[in-house]
Fold these 2 entries.
Entry 1:
Amino acid sequence: MSLKIDNLHATLENGTEILKGVSLEIPAGEIHAIMGPNGSGKSTLSKVIAGHESYIPTAGTVTLDGADISEMSIDERSRAGIFLAFQYPNEVPGVSNANFIRAALQSRLPKGEEIDAVAYYKSLYEKMDLLEMDRKFTARAVNEGFSGGEKKRNEILQMMMLDPKYCVMDETDSGLDIDALKIVAKGVNAMRSPDRGMLLITHYQRLLDYIKPDHVHVMSEGRIVKSGGPELALELEEKGYDFLKEPALA
Amino acid sequence: MTSTLPAWFQARQQAAQKRYEETPTPKRGDEQWRFANIKQLKFDNLSGEAVEADASDLIARSTGLESPVAKFVFINDQVVLTESSLPETVICLSLADALEKHPELVEAHFMKQETRLGSAKYAALHEASVKNGLFIHVPDGVVIEGTIEAHHWISGETTVFPHTLIVTGKSAEVRVIDIFHSAEDTTPGLAIAFNDLCAGQNSSLDYIAIQELNEVSRIISINETSTARDARAKGFILNTGAAWARNESLSRLEGENSRSDMLSVSIPDHVQEYDQRTFQHHVSPSANSDLLYKNTLYGHSKTVFSGLIFVGETAHHTDAYQTCRNLFMSNDCEANSMPGLEINADQVACSHGSTSAQIADEEIFYLQARGIHPTQARQLIARGYSVEAVARLENEEVEDLLMKFIDSKFARIK
């Protein structure tokens, strides 16, 4: 059981190649982190996994528990068990958080089957309590007028509610102060499970103090250039990304 | 009309008939009919073949609020249902009854403003032809809890002239909903409707018009609102039906510190056309008007919005806002917006503007990434788009009812 990315290449619509052969396997039960400088293709990788249509996969495959998902649409991938926590979550004016999450859950049910409202709210409130989110967030429009930290917490709330097999978190730590970071980490850690794989994309080592990864990968110029254990993140923090360029480490 | 009508009313109807005949039909090139589809004004095939409708069936189909404080059902301007649990001091009658029982009150408020947004001819036709409607008079200090609801059915290839006249006394409060329906799905009807809203001093008057006629019918709906000192009026129009709807809404802020909210949600599909003209007329100082019209266009539909904020010479310290927003859900729809502003006083805060946009791919991506099918994602976003105007009513029960009509429209869109 794994989310497996094999020799993935992707270009922008104008032909610029962003991913130049990424290979990575995230087995269920493990947390992997990808670090790397700006422009290295980290966010693009997360979007290509989710099926974003602005990127054109030109070679390679993404397989989910052995099944190739390359031909699946964005929503099919989500229902198949992939969750992308956005770096910049969108606002959805006029759609309440509660209705939005409910619509997402409803999309997973067979036609004609309805969500049990009582059980739904019970589950929602439990998770909101864990994430220290005020109940008033259920009635507020999705991300509208939310602070950066509130938006990120809301991403984790959605992730907890949808209970995906594989979580891809794109710079979930950006824009968070230390207290908000701890709360977000608490949510993510609560989701750790032998049945679930996670991919954390981050710029800074700080997040990894709170969410301990099993493996760390470094991405540069559209490729994974180095992989290692949690100590690799500390080394990067200490030496900066420039050390990747030293021939001895290449 | 019967001979029991008051003399003043008969005289007005005769004068109005003459005015109707003398007023030229709008033509291409008239500023107030710019971008309008003038062909829609050919009414000659609607000469009045009213169908004898099954009243009990239409009463059963007249669903709205769970328990309105009063409920009226009209079929082709005939009252078929009257229910009321209003306090006795409130006059809430069919217009025909009100003309008989309270002629002086009707006379004091009936069609007092000049129709100036283009449909003077049709206002005259309405005045000459009106047979019925709703008359509501809420005396000083009376606050009506709950909402008065009226259903207006058109049955057969005929023309109806529903009239709603609402008068609030000092510090009174009332909320009224008119719902316009077609009895048949494919029979073209015509409504020339008029609503007169007279908000007395420090009173609160909310008026909601829901138009869900069949897609071969047409409606001209003329609203005239006046607000006395410290009064608050809200007018809301929901358009989901009709082949063609023309709404003319005029708010005259007559008293200091009064407020008028002019709100609309329109969701045209296929070849539906909605043509809306508005006028925020600031007469007194320190008054506030705020207009928000939101259109979501599907198919080959078309909207026209033309709005003017007019701040008179004595209307200092006016706050006046006007926003029309269009959301394009297809590549074949068309929205025309003509916002306008004329300021003749000092120290005013005014803004006006219109925007047109499509749903961005990134917005769809976000919802899709949660598992929501793209078609449903677009509808969720479009539904949410309407909520901003609906929420301005600040009444949960009425907001829920409007969302029910909005959802029913979305459910019909392929």
Entry 2:
Amino acid sequence: MNRNFASILVGAALALASVTAAGAGTLEDVKAKGFLQCGANGGNLIGFGATDEKGEWSGIDVDFCRAMASAIFNDPTKVKFTPLNAKERFTALQSGEVDVLSRNTTWTMSRDSSLGLQFVGVTYYDGQGFMVRKSLGVSSALELSGAKVCTQTGTTTELNLADYFRSNNMPYEVVAFEKNEEVLQAYEAGRCDAYTTDASGLYAERLKLVAPDDHMILPEIISKEPLGPAVRQGDDKWFTLAKWTLFALLNAEELGLTKANIDEKKTSDNPEIKRFLGIEGDFGTPVGLSGDWAYNIIKNVGNYGEIFDANIGPSTKLGIARGLNNLWSKGGIQYAPPIR
Amino acid sequence: MNKPGSAFVRDSLLPARAPPPNSVGIVGWMRQNLFSTPLNSVMTVVILVFIVWAVTPFFRFTLVNAVWTGEDRQACATATGACWAYVKAYLPQFIYGRYPIGERWRVDVVFWTLVVGLIPMLIPRAPYKRLNALFLLTVFPVIAYILLTGGHHQFSGRWIPNSWMSPSPLRFAVEYALVSAAVFGVSTLFSWMSGRPITGSWRTLGFILGAFAIVLALVSLDFGLVPVETANWGGLLVTLVVAITGMVASLPLGILLALGRRSNMPVVKLASTIFIEVWRGVPLITVLFMASVMLPLFLPDGVTFDKLLRALIGVALFNAAYMAETIRGGLQAIPRGQYEGAQALGLGYWQMMRMIVLPQSLRISVPGIVGSFISLFKDTTLVIIIGLYDFLGQIQASANDAKWASPVTGLTGYIFAAMVFWAFCFSMSRYAAYTERRLDRGRR
């Protein structure tokens, strides 16, 4: 009887280990599959990777995958999302379960060097910030001297907080809690003057307060949390493709190319725009794409600014200001090498 | 009529008088059960006050102050009660997860097929039990698998080198035939060595391998269904798939392991004991974590094992170990005389177990088995750790939606989850109590 079971198990393993032929490169595999497999945030991080009640995905991380799908297939719908949690995201990328990981992941040296993955770039410059009541009358974190600050225990948030206040010679008091919900409750109940965590998180948490408009996020960012997509190490062609998808989004904004006006701009005399649209020179073939790859991205998804505004910008519920994420020419640090 | 002689003896019964008013009705019941002694009276009052104190806010939150209608968070932002409007808007996602909207009828078909198949199984007097069980255990899983995943599974084999034969269903078929032949060979060798008739084991093996081949052929057929990868399953669908597969797989496995542990054959006994103790010694969360994070690193490049499948195997094996111990308890409660009696009748080991021992011991084990099932059902929520969004996980994730985020959204979600889990577990426990009474009728 045990023998029979063994045979069944062998058969089952044989049948169910899904057979993915190990091809030459990720791009060839993706083209053969007919869609891009994108690892996204399954925990619904609003504005970055989330599904609504109809199961429709949205967010800047999600739109980055759609941009890649547009570059490859000229079709932003040819992407399948795998909801991932923070623990398994790297394994999913390493094991080939997803082709690109676009799940608000902080680019750090240890991750870049020892996890078998490569960060493509930065889609959102995040960092630790402070939220306060507008009624407090504070407009800068430097005015928080003597404040009670709510935070989560045992995270780097607490250390950054200590460093910032000490280096600015300001006394402060930490009110720390184990869970995020508790922190928010304490802040709402007025047990502290300020609430600190990553800025993107502050904007999302603000929505859970009774009157979000009575609270504001201070402009100071006290830590570096650059968020970006990552691909598997060892496939340089694929890495280049992903990198230039991001650069195309940024270059388009810089060149003033939007979803709406890109067709008109085809007649533009600007050589940079001509190169971007693939009218002059061939920049697609070396990365394995068609000549109008960048046009397809913008036509289908829009440029970086459009993606930002649609998902997390001031007109959305989150209402995040561009700040650091503005183009370098407009006071931010988003910068892309030219297409030349 | 008047009998003579005894004027002082009553010849008719006095009509029964009404009992004293304070010992009947509600008053009487309360006097007897709630206020029989001063101590009891005090306790009654204290507990009553406690219940009112604890339950009133709950009702106020869930019913009185609750928000029932609304389009988005505006409705609930300032509410002091549950935000049922959010549950209403999100209910489909709580049930199906991210399963594509156009394909959700497939989940419905599977669910109602299960209900239609299961209800006659649960009613003791309904006929065709054997056929029904056969349907539920063989035909139904195949239907469910094809409908839920979309079928059209591409088998291409993986052992025969590409230079000999290109990857194709044919190569897989050849490989399957080779494996089958090897299994036949091994079984023949065993039978030959132990001097048993060969044809019997051949028949069993042929039946199993043949049935398995049919199943594989069926799931590789193209029924024109859109494939839905398991990463997009979620909500109650995942909870039920994990729970039901776990229950169905762990019971027979558990029985085998329990028998193995009580076996006289040292190897079988040792293997079963080791299996049970290892799995019982590890928390489920570790098992799931291993399956999801470590396993992919051990597999060769390009081989990905479905995440849900990994969780299913983990949950089934984990619960099989617990089930084995529950059933072993039942086996040990059967008096030796039953075993000896069965042997005296000339029954073989399997006959003895099937006809004499197991029916009695399973009956004893019913409460324990149901306890295991209930805890399994609740344990399914742990699959969130490996990124499967079960019922609870889906609720947690949805509470972050900017459209609905509010101070009460998360709380409402948790209350709703608690109510649904309670409904499932309580009905399981009630049905088990009913079965227990029914099976126990002969012993009272």
